[in-house]
Amino acid sequence: MDIGRGKHRLIASAAVFAFVATACSIGGPGDGGSATTGSPTPSVSATPTPTPTMTFEVWFGYGEWLFVTKRTEPFGPRVGTAVTALLAGPSAAERTVGVGTSIPEGTELLGLSIDGGIATVDLSRTFESGGGSLSMFSRLAQLTYTLTQFPTVEGVNLRLEGKPVTVFSGEGIILDDPMTRRSFRDRLPPILVQSPLIGEQVSSPITISGTANVFEATVSITILDAQGLEIASGFTTATCGTGCRGTYSTSVGFTVDQTQAGTVRVYEVSAKDGHPINVVDIPVVLLP
């Protein structure tokens, strides 16, 4: 598979991080009248029960490539919630740095069932509107990768307003078999960063992880401060490379004297001239 060597950048130019410290007090004096006898009874405040949450992946895009992020939502049906989050599109912070989606605005989830490892998703017909072949393949890939993160889903069948789809859009994309991640593996970038997330608050050491298909499986990392100066660097080796995709994970320590915007830069060193290529910039908040 020829994935190319073009640069893949998420540039956080002119991005501003606002830090707001909030405090919340619970309890206080009671509203009852004064007691005439005995000692004052202290007021008792009930401790709120934490709302259970769940975290899941949502797959969007950056340019021609797939891009993964995460959402944390109140606990519920995970698969359906993930599709709903996908249709809602990237957050404002994600859009600021160039993350987008090929799924048309206004696409609605009409139904979802899972049987024998195959998810059947029923969407409104808006899903196949607009765009050329790249956009059509990208939106199918986004849907498939978002759904197949769950162990109960191995493949995806598509319906549009209740009708099974075997030929998708005017581009004539054949969908005879359930869609799988293998169907769209050419949509993955040379370097995919799964952690940290855009805008995440990170302390030292920071864990950087994802998948990559790069020369000699070597993934390089640089951490930049708010001024764009390098404050730490490192590298790691993916489990496969130079023609195959492997996973990578490493921790890099850094030091800052105050909370500030920063960038985690993940890239490949060119075998030709030693310059960074396939660069992915993830804007974060660096904590001292």
Order of helices and strands: EEHHEEHEEEEEEEEEEEE
Q: In percent terms, what proportion of residues is strand?
A: 35-45%
Report the end-to-end length measured between terminal Cα atoms.
Answer: 42 Å
Largest sheet descriptor: 5 strands, mixed
Shape: globular
Alpha-beta content class: mainly beta
Unreliable runs, pLDDT <50, ≥5 residues?
1-38
Taking strands numbered 1, 2, ... along the chain, how are they ordered across the largest sheet?
10-16-15-12-13
Give the helices and strands, then pairings:
Blueprint: E1 53-62, E2 65-74, H1 78-88, H2 92-96, E3 109-115, E4 118-123, H3 133-147, E5 155-160, E6 163-164, E7 167-168, E8 173-174, E9 191-195, E10 201-202, E11 206-212, E12 218-224, E13 230-237, E14 246-252, E15 260-269, E16 276-286
Parallel strand pairs: 4-5, 10-16
Antiparallel strand pairs: 1-2, 3-4, 5-6, 7-8, 9-11, 11-14, 12-13, 12-15, 15-16
Helix pairs in contact: 1-3
